[in-house]
Design goal:
The chain has 154 residues and is mainly alpha-helical. The protein has eight helices and two strands. The longest helix is centred in the N-terminal third of the chain and has 22 residues.
Amino acid sequence: MRDWINLRYGTNFTEDDLKSVKDFTLMWNIFDSVTCSTHFSIVRFEQILINQNYDINRFLPFLNYFKERYVVNNEFNNRFQHLNFRNNDRKDLVKEVLLGNNINEKEIILALIIIIFRFRNNLFHGVKDIQVIDEQRSNFENANEILKIIMENF
C-alpha cells in the first residue's frame, strides 16, 4: 500500500512514517468498541467518564504536549483552528483546559479525547493532507498513548 501511495501522491513515505497513523486507526477502533460500544459521541463518553477513576498525572504530559502545540503566549495558533471543531465538539471546554483555566480532572481527560476525536474525524473524512500525513506522527503517537491509558480501566 505504501508503494502505491508514494507513486500516486509523489510522496516518499517509509513504513515507519505511516506506523502511527495505522496504529491510530486500529486503536480508535478498539477504543470506540470498548468504551462506547461502537457509538462514540462526546456526550456519551462524558457520561462514561463520570464513573471512571484515573490518575490525572498520567495524562499531564499529553496535556502539556497539546498546550505546547496549540497555545502560544496564551493565544491559540493556526494549528488549533485546523482541528476543525464542529458545533457540538465543546471547543470552549478544550480552550479552557489548554489555557489552564479548567483544572477539573475529568474535564481535562474529556478535552484530550475531544482533541483526539478531531484527529479521528479529520483523518477518516479526508481533511488531513495525505502528502504530509507523516508530519502528524507525534499527534498520533500521543493520541495512541492516551487511548491506551483510558482503555486500561475497561
